[in-house]
Each structure stands twice: as structure tokens, then as C-alpha cells.
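S1.2 Input.
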Amino acid sequence: MSEEINKNYLKEKQYKSTKYLEARIKIHSFTENKQSFHQWLFDQYDLSNFKNKKIKVLDVACGTGVFWKQNFEKFKNFEIDLTMTDFADSMLEKSKLSLKDYSFNINYEIADIEKLEKYYGKFDIVFCHNAVYHAENKDLALQNLSRCLNDAKESFVSITTNSEKHMLNVYEIGRKLDSNFPTDRIIDTFTEETADKMLEKHFTVDKKLELEKLKVTDLEILMNYVASGVEPRNIKLKDTFYEEYSKIAKQEIDNNGYFEIIKRSPLYICKKVN
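S1.3 Output.
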């Protein structure tokens, strides 16, 4: 079983602490866009039918709660009953800490995307951002997300992932320097190219696309991102790997003023198939 869908690996290595996820989030602060990816997500939703009712929301694989922290001011106009779930204790603890001063009614629960039966039929909105690729049975995961929705016509599931081309140059440099550098990325089992076909079996889909350039000027943040895909997997790289990678990246920063990374991230707003 590949590591990106091995739950023991994910719990005991990749997400045992929030260190590696936070390294992967931090690099996105170098965006050229006027708003973050999470803020962009919020602006894609039509929430006009929810203004005069309590919204029951399920966040599957909520991570560190960054989506809610960055959009709290926008959500203040709504009455939210929020259930935050993740299969990693570390993520829920970080979410609790990040959102402790926020006024939502929030429940935190351990849950696996492939075992969501207790949530069936209860929610107006289900968020599942950059997480389906962790499921061993992705069709089951998508069925579960659909079944968690209630029958209201405005209810929807929000799913995100990334393209096969997403941040590809970061990985290409690593592979050129050392053949042991991971050739498989966490996202590779459920990319945009896969999701386009798979989601149509389970939902009526409205796809939106965010194209983004990162202009990274902090070499340490870039190298922490590179290490976040290597260290938790205990991959042995040559002793000079990080030194050589840093030299290449620093040269680009010195020449251009930044290290450029291209992002391509789709959002799928999914409705139940009647």
C-alpha cells in the first residue's frame, strides 16, 4: 500500500505532529494573488440561500483549521453549527488552539473519510479539501461525502485537489539530484486529471480553477517544504542533497529575486445526484 493512503503511516509519521503540514502551508504565503487559496475558496460559494437559517457544516480532514481562521470574518454573517473531523489527533488539537477565540459552535471529532456513517444525511455543507487522495477506496470516500448531505437543494460538497503539474518544478529538481527522492507525491492518487472523471460518477459538478504563482524569497521556508515530503518517510538521500538543492534554489533567488513555483488547484462544488 502506498504511503499516501496508509493510515498508520499518515498518523504515525506525516501527521503525528503538525510540523510537516504547516511547512507545506507556509510556502503558499508567497502567492502573487491578492487573496489566499482558502479565501478564494470562500468567494466561489453561493451562500445566499443560507442567510436566514442555521447552517450545519461538516469539515472532513480539517487539518489545522486554516480555512476557518482565514475566513472567519466572512462567516460571521452566518449562524454556523460546525463539526470538525480529522483522523489525526494532532490536527484536531491544532484546530482547537487556532480557533479557540472564535464564536462558532464547534464540535471536534476523530473520523476517517472512509467511515462517515454517523454523519449521513445531517449536513448542509461538507468541506473536504485536499484529502480524498488519502483514502484507500476513493469511490467509497466520495460516496460517503455525498451521503453526509441532507436533501436540501442548496446543499453541496466542496472538494479540492491539485493538478499533476502542480508545483512540479520543486519535485523535478529533487529527482535530478537524487534518484531516491520521492517520485510519487501525496496528491498523485487523486489529481485534477483523476478527479475530473471520478467525481462525475457521484455528483453534479461545478468546477472552478485557481492558477497561481508563488515567488518564494525565503530559502529556509522552501527547504522546509522540500523536506516535508522526505523526512516523515525516512527516505535516505545523499549527504549533500539539501546543500545542493539549496545552492540551485539560492541561485534562482539571486538571479530573479525569487524562486518561482506554479500552482494549479481545482475546486469542485458538488451536488447530490437525484
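S1.4 Remarks. The chain has a mean pLDDT of 90.
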